[in-house]
Amino acid sequence: MEWISVNPLLAQGEFGMETDTDFLKLGDGVRHWIDLPYFLGPTGPTGYTGYTGYTGYTGYTGYTGYTGPGITGYTGYTGYTGYTGYTGPGITGYTGYTGYTGYTGPTGPGITGYTGYTGYTGSTGYTGYTGYTGTTGYTGYTGYTGYTGVTGYTGYTGYTGYTGYTGPAGPTGIATLVTDPNTVLYAGQVGYSTVGSIPIIPTMQMSNIARVDSYYGNDSTGNFLGLPFLTVQGAITAINTASASGIAIWVMPGTYNLPASGITLPNNTALRGVSLQTCTLQITGATANTTLITMGESCRVEDLNLSLTSSGHYSLTGINFGGTTTVTSKLRTSTLTVDNSASVYSGTSNVYGILCSGTGTLGPATFSFNCIKGSTINVKSNGNGIKRGILVNNTNIVTTRDTNFYVAQPPDVSGNTGSYVGVETNDPSNTGSIQLRSTTVGSITPTTGQTYTASDILQTTPATITNPTYLASAGIQIGPGTDLVRKTAGGKGFSTYVYPTIIYYGLKGTITSAGVGWLWPGTQAVSAGTFPDPGLPSAYFRVQQPCILSGMSAGLNVAPGGTNTLTLTVYYTPIANLTTFNGYISGTTLTITSGLVGTIAANQYLVGPGVTAGTTIVSGSGSTWNVSSSQTLGSSGSPVAFQANLAIVTPFTITFNAADYNRSFYNASLNLNAGDLIHLYSSYTSGSPSNVAHDITCQLDLF
Question: How is residue 287 annotated by DSSP?
């Protein structure tokens, strides 16, 4: 190997040898070959230094030209400098870069004149900081300097004498010539070879390191002192055989095939690649239920590209956090892909990027443990079954930060009912939780005609949220910086750190002094026939961007009393359901003439220029329909533009019973798109004694 032309970077502790000189260099993992010093054994006697040749005569220096005739101006008077006092006996420290000068010892009684500010001085040795020097008196003006004459030619430089002969080289340091490629070097021994395709046998002196190297490794000779293993499983087997603890498995660049059954990390072990970009651990073409990595207690997996693939329907898991590993072990700066998307759409398989099946719990001081950080989890599948980026199905508590979970759309979007979800909690004991911070979760929402289901998150358990405060309830807890790409939660509730939008409603006064109706965003005074608003179309809040309605809470200043109730119900009008057409109304008959987009149906409210407020479609079909209010609008020759829509009731409803002052509901979620309309409807019952509910406040929480 031509060391100088290739100029390689040797790993720390790795030797390289020049076969033409037998010189060695020891790598430090930082400097390339030409920057490394030679590694020498005991230095032999230094050869005699040859005589230095005579230095040639230096040529004569040319005459300096005459100075020009310019007259040098007079120099102004310099201000008097005051007497400097005696310097104290302080010891001067090492000289470094001159910046501020340190304090000087006590100054004698002499009075020092003001010294001008000194400009910055170039770098010197380290000096202590100097205090500020007083101002120097003003210096008189300097006269103009005359022109400098032409500089004469410099004489020729004499020849440099010959360099003496270099003495003979000292003996080479101790090394072992290796002729058998299977030779095992003992700890600290240096070996070299002059034949074969590998002229240099690298040796690293390491401690508690199980190095895995796809080129130099040998599972039968590898050890924890520097000799490499060929496979990751070989290193794990050696750790288990020796009952070793605190071993780091260090994976060199390459692609490593793991056993078909996957690997289980011994407790208190680290598994780390040299670089995520160049180190891959994989199982390809799995033909049985497979877990790629089972995490041990107090373990760490880092800087690796992890892959598990199959073309069939099997239960596949990328990493399984069992026991208490979600609070003792960590996944860092890695990518994990679990992929059986080539399987047929009619089959069934459960595919998990990460499965948290243990019992670890977090306390107040360990909320930032982050068992998954700086990593990307990809799940790609097809057909029926459960497909999850991460599933928490036991009592363990999981924390993530700076992580991406992505579950791809199946190649076959119809003909199967698979469930594709980024993050799910489904612990039967209602304890398992996941805290997401600075995390992105994405899935692909199915459209009309597609039969699979998908959502970014899905809190299957707990089904009931008694306290929506962040970290107060088990399940999915959306922390700061977390993004749900599709803004979908599968119709289930969840807890969140912050709500991007709060819609506030207020109604001041005794509720029964007016009828039932729609509340307007903001606060209004109760007024019969006006607030609540009984008219149509319903008072609304228009959604400006995709979001999730995640909960509602409301309060009363005075409870209903008696056996009375007051109910608040959220409706919404999907923009996708908006129907438009041209036509006319004569009496109670609506005739559609052209331009129908959407579907006409009974109970839709009708709006358009001149339409009587509150008009709804009662019945009909085709182009002829009956409406609730008699009116004349347009004609067959001059039709007008109409819109028809229907507000849909949602699961979000709150009922105040006789003695209730505060109520909330966070056990569901509703996906909303830009342009959808949100409505809030108020109704009540009143018996004897009458309903005395007073002053409503209500907020809707949008994520």
Answer: -
